[in-house]
Amino acid sequence: LVDYLKSHAAKYGLDASRLCAWHFSAGGTVAGTMLGEKSPASCVVLTYAILSLGEGDRDPRLGPHSALVQARERGDRFPPTLVVRAGRDAKTLNESIDAFVAAALARNAPVSLINYPAGDHAFEILNDTDETRRVIAQSIAWVKSRLQPR
Questions:
Q1: Rounded to whole angstroms, how far apart are CA atoms 10 and 76?
Q2: What tens digit of pLDDT does each residue of 81-130 get?
Q3: 10-59 pLDDT per residue, tens
Q4: Which sign, positive or negative, has the C-alpha torsion 50, 124, 121, 115?
Q5: CB atoms within 10 A of CB 8
Q6: Residues 30, 2 contacting (CB under 8 angstroms)
Q7: In sequence order, which residues have a C-beta less than 8 Å from that of residue 134 and are 6 or more positions away?
Q8: Within 10 A of 13 (CB to CB), how many other CB atoms are there?
Q9: How far is CA 111 from each of CA 16, 62, 71, rounded to the nearest angstrom?
Q10: Among the residues of 24-129, which ranges form H helices?
C-alpha cells in the first residue's frame, strides 16, 4: 500500500514524505512494521491496538511485526507515535498497550498517550459521548500537527 501511494502520490495530490499509519484493534499486530527501521511513516497512531504477538514476539519471523518488540529494540528511533487506550477494553489487549508504552518510554521514544478510561473497544462506534468526540478530535489534531509542511 505504501509503495502504491508513493508511486501514485502526484495522481492523488499526496506528499509521500508525510504519511501517517493509523492502526486500530487487530491492525496493531502488524504495527511493528511501521515502527521498524525501514518505516516510511512520518507518524504512527495506535488506537486500542494489539501491540504484542504474545509467544509470537519471540519468533524471528513474526517478532519484527510486533510493536512491543520494536519498542524494546528501537523505541528511541520511532517516528512520533500516539497511543489511544480504551480503559474498558479487554484486559489482555490493554496489558499489551501498557507493556508497549512502558518499553517505549524506557527507550525515551517520542510517544504520546491518550487514555480514555470510559472507552470501550471500538468506542468511536459504541460510545456516542462528548468524551468520545474529544478523544477523536484530539487524535486527529495530533496527526495534523505531525503532518504539517515544514
A1: 32
A2: 999 999 999 999 999 999 999 999 999 999 999 999 999 999 999 999 99
A3: 999 999 889 999 999 999 999 999 998 888 899 999 999 999 999 999 99
A4: positive
A5: 11
A6: no
A7: none
A8: 6
A9: 22, 23, 10
A10: 31-35, 67-74, 91-106, 123-126
